[in-house]
């Protein structure tokens, strides 16, 4: 079947470029320029899917992005399948596979259609009233069935084959919508030389001009005017024209988000091309020329395939050269449908027009249409349709003074309906502009703006073409700061309509199923039921009935729903108000929002200068904040346990080497540096000598531990501060905050040097011997360079800051060299240490070794609720200092109360048993639940050096419990532990100076 | 995304900034001179108004300076921004939304 | 109250559903009530319901400035769980979870409480340790929560990527099987209907604009847009607006109100069997009965009452979602929105007395109070009825910000090293 | 001496990365440079420093980009590092300042070509138009999820992106991805 409904001439499609795609497996022929919808119609297909709830046959209602019904799954190849595409916006292209949804086994025979028979039960909100008994059935039976029935299309199953791009852009004037109003606005703004961006969601700019075949503007055809306007804009450097670009969100401070569809329409797109591009535009001024949406009429069985919007019928005929039917009835309460009827008639179709309004209200249009040979029935209502898979007739009846006369069936294969127009105020409303109700238009129009924005054209409630052009030009000029005024001449547009809610009917309204929200299957009856049940707020009506909550967000239905609510409540429409307009205007792919932030670009992976060496030497890595750190270095055949045990022993018995480059480093410089340190740390700093180091502890103002680290004094006015890896940014921020805002009088500057220095920790009894031949300018002897000292000199010819510090309890050095030298120095140390069996170790061994010594790790022993005293570090607090950040809070009642959790060591009865970190501790495992928990295990390891497991824990009143037995949870029950001092190895601390 | 007028750099996008909460909360010169109640309030109690609000921002991914702003917490519009240590030109005690 | 059941639905179906009456009345305010509740969200309505059903106090008004359930109750991602760490939190959330388990039947209103399980993903060793700490604490508190390996996570949630090559590979997870979701609107409506049936007046479009106090300082009534109403006791349950309401009684609060955003995708056939939360990458996701993926984003960084936020918050969340569910990039966002959450310094609620006699407050639920709705209402009703806290809410005092006895779940889960 | 034998070689990040040359935007890594972070309150009269925030003083070999009221990023060829340092110490000798060597902290990447600004805008939220970001501009900002300093040393569409070294792989990857997307119309 080859396009039997295609007109021989006309339309904007490119007849020289035939294309083929499939719909439910069947080949469809069309032309470049078709949408899937227009091509289906050209092939006589209206039935495109099944509705959400009742599985009713549904077809194509509109010609644009407001489409609620014709939703298809689209397959553009592997990794490129997605559901719920509107047939009216998907551009037909070679090889695309479209499929109907929400039906099984087939579109024409759908088992789910039994729901339609049950529809008397399945009314709005019915599920709140039932499915409660038996209780257990909800999870196992009812809910799964409800879920399977809902949900429209099928989610993609495999990772996306496409890429997505992002672009921030700035302009003076952003014009959204490129119909006559938007084009006029762009022309006006562009002339000023200001930067202008014009975005329109359609493949071609022009909006309604794309289907105005008989109208003239300034003496030329609408098409000629359109083409000239676009050519003029395109020629200007300061203008960016963006077809296929939907402005979907209007955020604060004129931040507008738009998606550009770059490749979906192209069968030949290069692989590297992004599918979509997110534009984040910061606009000086915005002109919203987004047009208006036509309203359907609400009558019984108005949802049959073949029942469309009147203007859409016109669009398919004029723009796509497609006849949606051979015998078309228009049902309307609006004049605009007359234009549609006239154009369709001119295309050679048998046309009847039914107007709800009495003859005298209809004006001269009636005669004009009759003169073209169209039968016009004024004063008629629609009470139903014939046909199921496709409309076969429209049932109409005269209304006189509210009385419904005899029914008459007008046989037809397509219905074009129009209940008037609704300005597309979505973006205006998102911008927080106040809507004003226009009684004459029976619609909300933009009122006071909240941002630098103005509306124009039909979006502002102006429906006459001349007004659209003039208002667009004025808006564009004003937005660009120009005062230019321009008038346009154009063919007058027939405008005007009579607002109508549900159409009058002779049927029992309690039985009539007149659809308001087509996608969510909400009928006028449902709305009335909601109100009967007390859901009077429009927001309640929406949520109870789900009207306006479908993928079209009620573009075609919201005003009808509102009208019905207002009428039933007998309250004026503006006092009922609209529901809230929210982004996005039309659904936006997650991909566009994510943009390039996928895979390797999701989050930076920070690595150290020694990372590559570690990777080459088989390290396993762990994520720590954004960093990737070497975790352990298994040798062939070793598991983690064996590797860590070996690394631990190597450090204590010989020497180990550890990459500590990720430690945060801050250079604190200035005459007031020591005073600044005094105020920020619990420790005193004034007396710390140059060349000396001190372990510092820092609190938040609430008294809890924020961070710790070794601090070296390099000069009177210069400190080299280190922080934890994860804490580095936090600590610098904390310091800057106090420095700038609390103590601006201090002459101190902070500079992050985390990444300036590679840090190589060399630890173990052979550490000194390992490095001594590499170092020059530093006397490494114990006397000249004691524990907790710092020296500047050279290593391997490179300037270094050498710290004599230890996080292992053994003799240790931390070599700081400029990062680019890190790897070379590391390799040199490896070589120098070879005679001593130097062993690279990772974070896991580092953790074990420091735990053997009872050193805390901030974030592991502490958690944001822990004070210095809790972890046994109260002694570090400078007694003499009147104040430091957090000091006052340490005196709060709960922080000095007894029964706080304190750091202790734990020893399992079985030395081979390693407790779970996070395990909870109780005094009596036999107490009933809920049990009294005394604390938890913060660190727990097998210690090869101690020959047993070790653990640190925070335990209520723990320091007084030394020697006591407690019980710790295990995956299967409890185990017994003895409380002890939290130092397991070299309690006297002699090794550090060995 | 807000557009924030850094007193040093001019209008820049919100993602370059961090908000530091209510402004002009002076840290007591001698914290030990205030009782637990007052100290608790200093730490935790906030005006949290619906309307004009004086708040701290830092142009973290810009010039790195802390500064203050008056913003309407209902419309999210900035009334003004000013450097740390300066006072706003609007009288916040008058402001009620 | 007309009972809801399949039978009543069937019989109404025969009559075109003309017989259903209002689910709750729309009374004018009376001059005086024993208890006035400010705020018709889930918590306020539940409070009224339990005042009537448990304490027999029915001369109660719930005053709602807009439409009931229109605050955070109507805009949350509906995650319900009770696997909190501290005894205090576990106590109140588990109290709530037990009530959720029979709520549809109790209210005779299907709130669609779906115990589909909440899986919290661990992406690093710190998560691993922290989740185990929770799992063990929960066990000793009688709350179900179990540790799953990455493979078990995948079995439980097939769309999950457990590839070791992603930025933050999944190391495992903590699963609470009894946790899940519920139909948020139905919770408000069900409580409203239940309370109304017992005589509570639910008064919408009634904004409280002042709290009046007598010479002794005691709260005695409220000014509203529908006139003055005397009150024996007043309970403030105004979520994001608590600071403003309490300021009417000159009480300053340790609260800040932030926009919190959420979004839904277009509806699709069932693909997502449970709830997944990932704190490390900041993502929360489930699928509703109607088929949308319901995704929670983060708060904006500044305080605001505007119920909307910036796009970058949304994109950041979707980055994370698509990192662990890469097949979802072709899904589409259908709608996004914001609510205003009131956040305390320790992110735990405040439920109890205030410095003003007869004025009580229930606030500070921040980003996670929906799950507590029944429990919160239940204990707050007790507090209002007796003048003293229930043992479950006793720790959640305002005074803890003076003493430092914070209940800081977030700090306990601090991301670190 | 072991020390002499092991005289450390300098290995900068991204050294192995080949230039990526696309039709409308190309990405090159730049060799190591001397870099200093200068902090000072008062620079009045010091010609190389006393210019508006966001602007750069440039000579053939050196630059001083003013990132904030009291912060400059200083750059010079690697061999001129000491000279630069001495120059600053001399110019500000009597005033309070902090000069910290960050040559190894920062890594520079160059993106050039007609679509260079557009590619940067994939992750940089600033207005990079001629009027807003002319020749001589420099500022700290963001590129996706990484902080960068963005500089435009000349009138040509050539931009220098500096970031901390551990973010270099990300920033470099981001720019390549962005350059290829921007090259597609
Ligand atoms: C996006 C988002 C996602 C969330 N996700 C979750 C989640 O997954 N799980 C979870 O447990 N929690 C979640 N939460 C939090 C949860 O929604 C709230 O904690 C909870 O709903 C609060 O309930 P409420 O009844 O206290 O408040 P609300 O429902 O906000 O009710 C307060 C009511 O007070 C009214 N009010 C305010 N001022 C006045 C006045 N002056 N006079 C009269 N009435 C007034 C308001 O109009 C409002 O209706 C989320 C919140 C948001 C915003
Ligand atoms: N006869 C009547 O009653 C009647 C009623 C309404 C409109 N009209 C006619 O319609 C025309 C209105 O002109 P106009 O310029 O105001 O509107 P238009 O409909 O011609 O153009 C609006 C354009 O905006 C685009 N658009 C809408 N929302 C968008 C978004 N979020 N992002 C990107 N693009 C978006 C649309 O695709 C469309 O191209 C006039 O010709 C007028 O006569 C007539
Ligand atoms: C769990 C949940 C699911 C939702 N599902 C939908 C939906 O399917 N369609 C829709 O339009 N909105 C949905 N919403 C959003 C609401 O329409 C609305 O945005 C939200 O309640 C906030 O109210 P407001 O946007 O009117 O301010 C959902 C909201 C929640 C909390
Ligand atoms: Zn700045």
Automatic annotation (TrEMBL), chain A:
One of the GO biological process terms: tetrahydrofolate metabolic process
Domain Aminomethyltransferase C-terminal: 901-986
Alphabetized GO MF terms: sarcosine oxidase activity
All residue ranges annotated as the SoxA A3 domain in the record: 512-593
InterPro entries referenced in this protein's UniProt entry, alphabetically: 2Fe-2S-bd_N (IPR042204), BFD-like_2Fe2S-bd_dom_sf (IPR041854), FAD/NAD-bd_sf (IPR036188), FAD/NAD-binding_dom (IPR023753), GcvT/YgfZ/DmdA (IPR028896), GcvT/YgfZ_C (IPR029043), GcvT_C (IPR013977), GCVT_N (IPR006222)
Domain called FAD/NAD(P)-binding: residue spans: 172-435
SUPFAM superfamilies tied to this protein: Aminomethyltransferase beta-barrel domain, FAD/NAD(P)-binding domain, Folate-binding domain
Pfam families for this protein: Fer2_4, GCV_T, GCV_T_C, Pyr_redox_2, SO_alpha_A3
Residue ranges occupied by any GCVT N-terminal domain in the UniProt entry: 610-881
Keywords: Oxidoreductase
Similarity comment: family membership: Belongs to the GcvT family.
Listed NCBIfam families: soxA
Protein name: Sarcosine oxidase subunit alpha family protein
Native species: Hansschlegelia quercus
From TrEMBL, chain B:
InterPro entries documented for this protein: SoxD (IPR006279), SoxD_sf (IPR038561)
Transmembrane segments: none
MF (Gene Ontology): sarcosine oxidase activity
Top-level taxon of the source organism: Bacteria
GO BP terms: tetrahydrofolate metabolic process
Signal peptide coordinates: none
Coiled-coil region list: none
UniProt name for this protein: Sarcosine oxidase subunit delta family protein
From TrEMBL, chain C:
Coiled coil: none
GO CC aspect terms: cytoplasm
EC primary class: oxidoreductase
Cofactor(s) for this UniProt protein: FAD; FMN
Single GO MF descriptor: sarcosine oxidase activity
Positions of the Rhodanese domain: 35-79
One Pfam family of this chain: DAO
Domain of life, source organism: Bacteria
Alphabetic keyword roster: Cytoplasm, FAD, Flavoprotein, FMN, Nucleotide-binding, Oxidoreductase
Catalytic activity: sarcosine + (6S)-5,6,7,8-tetrahydrofolate + O2 = (6R)-5,10-methylene-5,6,7,8-tetrahydrofolate + glycine + H2O2; sarcosine + O2 + H2O = formaldehyde + glycine + H2O2
BP-aspect Gene Ontology terms: tetrahydrofolate metabolic process
Keyword presence, Oxidoreductase: yes
EC number, as in UniProt: 1.5.3.24
Places the protein is found: Cytoplasm
Keyword Cell division: no
Family: Belongs to the SoxB family.
Record protein name field: Sarcosine oxidase subunit beta
Protein source organism: Hansschlegelia quercus
UniProtKB/TrEMBL annotation, chain D:
Coiled coil: none
Membrane-spanning residues: none
Database matches in InterPro entries: SoxG (IPR007375), TrmE/GcvT-like (IPR027266)
Protein name: Sarcosine oxidase subunit gamma
Domain of life: Bacteria
Pfam families for this protein: SoxG (PF04268)
